[in-house]
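User: I'm designing a mutation panel for Metalloprotease and want to avoid disrupting the core. Could you give me a predicted structure to guide residue selection? Please restate the sequence first so the numbering is unambiguous.

Assistant: Good idea. Sequence first, for numbering, then the predicted structure tokens:
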Amino acid sequence: MADWKKILSRGNVEDRRSLAPAAGGIGLTGLVIYLLVSYLTDGQVNIPLDQLQTITTENQQTVDTGEFEGEDSYEVFASTVLGSNNDMWTQVFDKENRTYVEPKLVLFRSATESGCGVADSSVGPHYCAADQTIYLDETFFDELTRLNGAEVGDVAQAYVISHEVGHHAQNLLGILGAADEEIQQNQGSANDLSIGLELQADCFAGLWANSLKDQNVLLPGEISEAMDAAAAVGDDRIQETVTGRISPESWTHGSSEQRVSWFTSGYESGELASCDSFN
């Protein structure tokens, strides 16, 4: 485990885990089942999503509203990772004569309201540009561990949070807005631009990991945990796991090799200029 105590900065984390869900979600397991059934039946899914939600949530325990009173270890962890990202991005923006605005990170269970509508666990950790907030249900990592058969450790989870902070940086730098305008003008460019954005966010996560080198936060060899996490969420790996086949034309995040490569680029260089994933 990384030595997170060496990081003194803290980010803005809001804990909503004790609140009732804004709307039901099917969960990661339910989503995988849904995709599998859709593939096997050539798109003719006979299980309505509301029934699938019941299947995947009927055994869940009701959240004890007192369970998350005060600040627990995961909230401290998330705040620490976010704080270290904020430190790094503040320095990067200062060099560019820009002002960095810190994002918020919301911890939740199942579903919660966001500036982009309902934030649902089934889509995994994600960033909403409308309210400049990252939404994270950390039980996502438990599901991912169970499905992959290997534990998703603290460094891998920190990579995921840093990737989402990378999207926030893209928003502040105008990259998300420019991509959206391009997609509006040319719908055919949507997948390529999406891949470029995701790979750049991976590179930005690499910049974050690089910024911790002098602090000796990560133990020798732990950076490979982040790389393994990047590989695990490659489009080819996910498609092969869910459908048994790989369809590059439908990719939106990039292959496992690409994701590891761009994370490594940021980690080894420590320079923003090394993260131009669009050319």
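For picking mutation sites, this is relevant: Residues 24-66 have pLDDT under 50 and may be disordered. Residues 2-19+62-272 form one domain.
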